[in-house]
Amino acid sequence: MRLLSPFLLFGLVGILIADDTGTTVAGHEFKSEKDFVTLFNGQDLSGWEYGPVPVTKKPIIEKLEGKMATKDKVFLVEYGLIVATGNCA
């Protein structure tokens, strides 16, 4: 009998507990409120922008549509999670 890899197993569990109406975790149903906006799609940084803090007079804003990481790799997506590496130049 073949065993599932851990990543495939967790992916299948994630599919089973998530649906369009909410997510069930530890027996509790999470329902989003009216006008709730998801900030992260679990795949990439679409909808996100990245720029200097504090904001400068003419900031260079990096659009992250469809990208998996910022150019300087401070933020990236790994295994469906956003990771802040702490790499500050």
General description of the model:
It is built from 1 helix and 7 strands; from the N terminus they run αβββββββ. The chain has 89 residues and is of the alpha+beta class. The radius of gyration is 17 Å and the shape is elongated. Mean pLDDT is 77; it is low at 1-21.
Which features does this protein show?
single chain; 89 residues; alpha+beta; three-stranded antiparallel beta sheet; two-stranded antiparallel sheet; 1 helix; 24% strand
Give a quick summary of the entry.
With 89 residues, the chain is of the alpha+beta class. Helices cover 13% and strands 24% of the residues.
Structural class: alpha+beta
Average pLDDT across residues? 77
Give, in spatial order, the strands making up the sheet with the most strands.
1-2-3
Total DSSP E strands: 7
Please write the string of helix (H) and strand (E) elements.
Answer: HEEEEEEE
Please state the overall shape, judged from the principal axes of the Cα atoms. Answer: elongated
Query: Describe the biggest sheet?
Result: 3 strands, antiparallel
Terminal Cα span: 49 Å
- Rg over CA atoms, rounded to whole Å, is 17 Å
Number of helices: 1
Give the helix level as a range of percent. Answer: 10-25%
> What fraction strand?
15-25%
Topology:
Elements: H1 6-17, E1 18-19, E2 22-25, E3 28-30, E4 49-50, E5 62-63, E6 75-78, E7 81-84
Antiparallel strand pairs: 1-2, 2-3, 4-5, 6-7
